[in-house]
Design goal:
The structure holds two protein chains of two kinds. Chain A has three helices and twelve strands. By secondary structure, chain A is mainly beta. In chain A, a hairpin with a 2-residue loop joins strand 2 and strand 3. Chain A is elongated, with a radius of gyration of 30 Å. The two termini of chain A are about 20 Å apart. Helix content of chain B is about 25%, strand content about 40%. The chains are: A mainly beta, B alpha+beta. At the A-B interface, helix 1 and strand 10 of A face helix 1, helix 2, strand 4 and strand 6 of B.
Chain lengths: ~300, ~190
């Protein structure tokens, strides 16, 4: 048994000669790159559209508006039944007239009206409120709540080779982030939710298991290992706390990181309306942690 | 034109009403549906044969330790405790095995065999008993009063639930074990061959 990282010297167990096996394969699911996590809440800089002022002496001649509706195509002086030209200038349009007019709306106009209605309704539920609040930046070692987990990110490291159970990096080097993770829910939580828990920022040249650069659409999610025995971890039972190594691969020609930022994501439990089964859906970044990156050493070499 | 829009509006309202009614019925009967979907549970205790449609299961021995070693895996250290249940399976009508297992704590939280859990249970023919074991990890506190749920397939409509009869003293003693449990594909120790 090899230990990626012993929690403390007192907890380290004696090695046992055991044949290693290949970790279970996990099917990667394509995601966007780590620099711009797909659901990360960024503050988008507001770009101001320059106002072009056309000097009056350079103003282009006004074009006669083209006729776009039958009503528009009518000759001047025949502006329709609700136009004042026919001597009904002060009359308020009757409801029937309005409805009749509504019946003549074209598809584009109807679509616009529908979109406006949707916006108006969404505004009632906060749809137009400001989004992307600042994500708190926490210190390493701080225990954070990121449903369904409590997570304490402790340190980061990199190395081309880890323990005997984990094959040497094919593409260059591994980048690892260590964390203590507790499942605070009453149900087992599985791989995909674990893999979404941490995302890396500030590391160039990350690759997925197929060798595709994350920046070119490769899967940016890490492999998950139990740090105390280097086994793959795909399920975290209720109330269980694991020392986890989140492991990414970085291409050899990229600069080994000396520091990085970890994005910690939360999830929301939702019930399927179809079969009432529950699942954890990504709900956004809850905090970030900046970490220095040290060279990974086998536990016996660690001081 | 107004009549056409009025007709469309009526259709939309009727469809919305039916959708709402369906949603309400689905919501109101969710508990009933969940109960109907639950598998039939054959309860038992350690040492007692439990008959099911897929075969007869008898849990013969339970062990525990924070660290196990198997011949098919790396050594596995649990942050909680590994519970290892030895059992025999005698298939009833067709060759089968126990492919699915989980531990349940006293609060009925589930700890599945999936992931780091280990299983040994060869397929056997009807009428021929075979020795099996499963190893599943759970929190130390959850092991007191835990049950083992076994069945042939994950979507089976009949499961065996065995009360492992673990008390706090036993669990605490196992949690302090420094030596690993060596799991091999052999018969239970009470058969005198391991």
């Amino acid at each position: 048994m090899d230990v990626i990282a012993a929690a403390s010297p007192g907890e380290r167990l004696s090695s046992c000669a055991v044949s290693s096996t290949s970790p279970r394969d996990q099917r990667p699911e394509p995601l966007a790159g780590p620099g711009e996590p797909p659901n990360a809440q960024h503050e988008t800089p507001q770009l101001e559209t320059p106002q072009l002022e056309t000097p009056q002496h350079e103003a282009a001649p006004q074009e006669t508006p083209k006729a776009r509706t039958p009503a528009d195509a009518r000759p001047a002086g025949d502006a329709g039944s609700d136009a004042p030209a026919r001597g009904a200038s002060a009359r308020t349009p009757r409801p029937k007239a309005v409805l009749r007019r509504a019946g003549t709306l074209r598809t584009k106009q109807l679509t616009g009206l529908a979109a406006a209605a949707v916006l108006a309704v969404s505004a009632l539920f906060g749809g137009l409120e400001e989004v992307a609040p600042d994500v708190p930046r926490e210190d390493p070692g701080t225990t954070l709540s990121a449903a369904p987990f409590e997570v304490t990110v402790t340190r980061a490291a990199s190395a081309p080779q880890l323990t005997e159970q984990i094959p040497a990096s094919v593409y260059g080097r591994y980048v690892l982030v260590f964390a203590e993770v507790t499942n605070t829910s009453d149900e087992p939580v599985y791989t995909s939710t674990l893999q979404d828990l941490l995302q890396l920022d500030g590391v160039e040249g990350l690759l997925d298991s197929t060798g595709t650069l994350v920046s070119e659409g490769g899967d940016d999610r890490p492999q998950i290992y139990h740090a105390l025995d280097s086994s793959r971890l795909s399920v975290v039972g209720p109330l269980m706390t694991y020392s986890i190594a989140f492991v990414w691969e970085q291409q050899e020609r990229a600069t080994a990181p000396t520091e990085l930022t970890v994005w910690i994501a939360g999830h929301e439990h939702r019930l399927s309306s179809f079969d009432r089964s529950g699942q954890w859906d990504y709900s956004g970044i809850v905090a970030t942690v900046d970490l220095p990156v040290a060279e990974w050493l086998p536990p016996e070499d660690e001081t | 034109m107004i009549a056409r829009w009025g007709s469309r509006l009526r259709v939309v309202v009727v469809v919305a009403c039916f959708l709402g009614l369906g949603w309400w019925i689905n919501d109101a009967t969710a508990g009933l549906t969940a109960r109907l979907d639950e598998p039939h549970v054959r309860a038992g205790v350690v040492g007692e044969p439990v008959e099911t449609r897929f075969g007869t299961v008898q849990v013969t021995e339970v062990q525990g330790a924070p660290y196990i070693v198997t011949t098919t895996s790396v050594g596995l250290v649990s942050p909680g405790i590994w519970l290892v249940a030895h059992f025999t399976l005698e298939p009833a009508r067709e060759p089968t095995s126990v492919y699915w297992a989980e531990l349940r704590d006293a609060e009925d939280r589930a700890y599945p065999l999936l992931g780091r859990g280990q299983r040994f249970c060869p397929v056997s023919n009807p009428g021929i008993a075979v020795a099996c074991w499963v190893a599943i990890e759970m929190p130390v506190e959850g092991a007191v009063g835990a049950s083992l749920v076994l069945t042939d397939y994950a979507d089976a409509d009949e499961v065996v639930r065995i009360d492992l009869g673990l008390d706090a003293a036993t669990v605490e003693r196992w949690a302090q074990e420094s030596e690993p449990l060596i799991m091999t594909p052999t018969l239970p120790s009470e058969w005198g061959t391991s």
